[in-house]
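=== RUN LOG ===
request id: a7f3
mode: sequence -> structure
chains: 1
length: 117
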Amino acid sequence: MDIVELMERSKDAVTVKRVFGEPIRHGDVVVIPVARVVQGGGGGQGQGKREKGEEGSGGGGGFGLGASPAGVFVVKDGEVRWQPAVDVNRIVVGGQVVAVVLLLTLRAIFGRRRRRR
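=== RESULT ===
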């Protein structure tokens, strides 16, 4: 497979259906799931001489696709409401980073006060 073919296939992989899921109906409520979709791809090729003077060439390529929940649209009685998805892991990691920065700041402040005495 050459790089041009890889890029053509990557365009086919990202569609609206990957972002907006199938609507879910429950009574008079319709829920439409939404995801964040990120894609990336790249490739390259080259040629040159090896250590023994032999000619060599090579090439390669790759493609990646990632998705995470963003939230849902809720349609009820003709009104649309957005409900974001809450990523608890991101909140916990953010809290830990803030706590570490706070502790290091306090350590630096109290360390300076001890040296002044």
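=== NOTES ===
The mean pLDDT is 83.
The beta strands are 24-26, 29-49, 55-76, 79-84.
=== END ===
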